[in-house]
Amino acid sequence: MSENDKNRLLRIRKRMKKRMPSWKRENYFRLKRIQTSWRAPKGIDSKMRHKLKGKRKSPNMGYRKPKAVRGLHPSGKEVVRVENLNELEAINTESQVAQLGAAVGSRKRLNMINYAEENEIYIINPQIKRTDFGLDDEFDLDEDIAEDDFDDLALVDDEELAVEDADE
To answer: 146 pLDDT exceeds 60?
Structure first.
């Protein structure tokens, strides 16, 4: 498929997405315990299952996107899930983008992000989960607060505490 055809189909997919209804569960607004997430209506008297006029739409084949661009990133590239550095090295930058796995830890994630920046690989979800990662003992108790300073930190002396206990 040529690049022009792919771009045309991506534009069609974007236009179709705007017109697609939001799929919500039948009667989700009636009861608080019913979530909005889609579930197929199964009741024998369900108006939505019978597709009556004025009721919510149900997902069906007519809402599918063009087959050639189904599952692609909006940029038109294939999304590849990556779990380690070896898988990241195998990515073709012209036709693929990387998506880091959810179970990848902060240290490995940071190494993969750095490698991707050097090799111009686009990562969809580059965020690091823990913001404090990478701080190598910046706050050391021995250096920042000397033991002599602990006397100044005491707010209430033992004698004052004993006087208060006696008053009660």
So the answer is: no
Match 């990133």 to its residue by tokens.
73
Which of 120, 76, 118, 121 is closest to 100 using CA atoms?
Answer: 121
- Rounded to the nearest angstrom, the gap between the alpha carbon of residue 9 and the centroid of all alpha carbons in its chain is 27
- Sequence length of the chain is 168
Per residue in 92-112, pLDDT tens?
999 999 999 999 998 999 999
Phi-psi region of 71 (alpha: psi -120 to 50; beta: other; left: phi over 0): left
In this structure, which amino acid lies at residue 54? G
A 10 A CB-CB count for 96 gives: 17
Q: How far apart are CA 74 and CA 9, in angstroms?
A: 11
| Gap between the Cα atoms of 72 and 64, Å rounded | 13
Tokens of 69: 């661009």
Rounded to two decimals, the pTM is 0.61
DSSP, res 139: S
Give the C-alpha separation, 37 to 25, whole Å.
Answer: 6
- Among residues 5, 7, 50, the alpha carbon closest in space to that of 26 is found at 50
Query: How far is the CA of 69 from the CAs of 99, 135, 152, in angstroms?
Result: 18, 43, 68
